Amino acid sequence: MADFASEFLTTKELADLLHIKERKVYDLAASGAVPCSRATGKLLFPRRAVEAWIDDHSSGIAPTRSNRSGKVFLGSHDPLLEWSLRASGAELATFFDGSLDGLERFGRGEGVATGIHVFEPETGGWNLASVRAEFAAAPVALVEFAWRQRGLIIAPDAVAAYADVTALKGCRVVPRQDSAGSQVLLRYLMAQAGLGRDDVQWGDTARSESDAALAVLEGKADAALGLRAMAQQFRLGFVPLLRERFDILVDRGAWFDPPLQRLFGFCRSNVFLEKARDLAGYDVAGLGNVHFNGG
User: Fold this and answer.
1) φ, ψ at 232 (rounded to 5°)
2) For the chain, how far is it from start to end, CA to CA, in angstroms?
3) With contact defined as beta carbons under 8 Å apart, do 126 and 213 qualify?
4) Tell me, what's the pLDDT at 57?
5) Backbone dihedral region of 235: left (phi > 0), alpha (psi from -120 to 50 degrees) or beta?
6) Of 105, 123, 187, 280, which one has the fewest beta carbons inside 10 Å?
7) Which is more confident, 134 or 85?
């Protein structure tokens, strides 16, 4: 019976899966819209056939797929988040290769959560439109982690020479990978300042916030678009440009599993709050605010 139960969904189970009322499930079955069986005298829905039916009627990236089996935290590198994952004992592996990369991998079911900071010029906001475009029907939630100060990281004695982004013309600039939210933002800010790609000298690609700051510290670049926290850590100069919202997109099922519960429980602790205060440029007052609830 256990094997039989795992192969078929009841009317209630399908209603819960689709986030609809049981009455609607009966209507779908009566019209032949959803695969079903009446062999036992009651409605049963073959699990694999239902999953294929959902995929065939879905838009966006794998909206009904569960990410719970992928114990990996994806997306953008954030120093406070990286520290919290270790300090909380969440026991999640990490693969930080940028906001856009994280969204793509999350859509393929490769992780339980992904950190993102994607600027959306149309609204002047962060992350929401990008998530809605791909995960409108998915069982996901977009949860606020922190607001961060971002600006130009430069040598301590060069602050006066960098009033804004226009000062980057002719300078050696640290690029991030194309999938990084900060590189998307840098290209936008340069365009707004009238700078093209060839107006700066690009150095080697930095794949994390710390690597970007380190390139300036080591004299390999004149400037990087980075976080105030990294400028402080490496004792570099900083010219603030904007505040950005760093959010975490989570699989709703995985949210209630021990790893993410442990992480967000830790993020409510005094230890976490003290660390956030020590790292310059962080505002975690809105931590846990839900900005989008899919499905």
Assistant:
1) -65, -45
2) 31
3) no
4) 62
5) left
6) 123
7) 85
> Residue 71 has which token pair?
């114990």
In order, the DSSP letters of 125-174 are: EESHHHHHHHHTTSSEEEEEEEEEEEEEEE-GGGGGG-SSGGGGTTSEEE
Which residues are paired to 22 by β-bridges?
none
Which residues are CB-contacts of 80 (< 8 A; sequence separation ≥ 6)? Answer: 145, 146, 229, 275, 276, 279, 282
- Distance (Å, rounded) from C-alpha 33 to C-alpha 25? 10
The H or E element containing residue 278 is: helix 270-278
User: What does pLDDT average to over the chain?
Assistant: 90
What the block records as the tokens of 14 is: 């399908």
Q: What helix, strand, coil percent values describe the chain, rounded to 5?
A: 40, 25, 35
Q: Residue 101: which residues within 8 A CB-CB, separation 6 or more?
A: 74, 75, 177, 179, 180
Query: Helices 99-107 and 128-135, interaxial angle, to 10°?
Result: 20
Question: The whole model's pTM is what?
Answer: 0.78
Q: How far is residue 223 from each of residues 184, 194, 242, measured CA to CA in Å?
A: 16, 18, 16
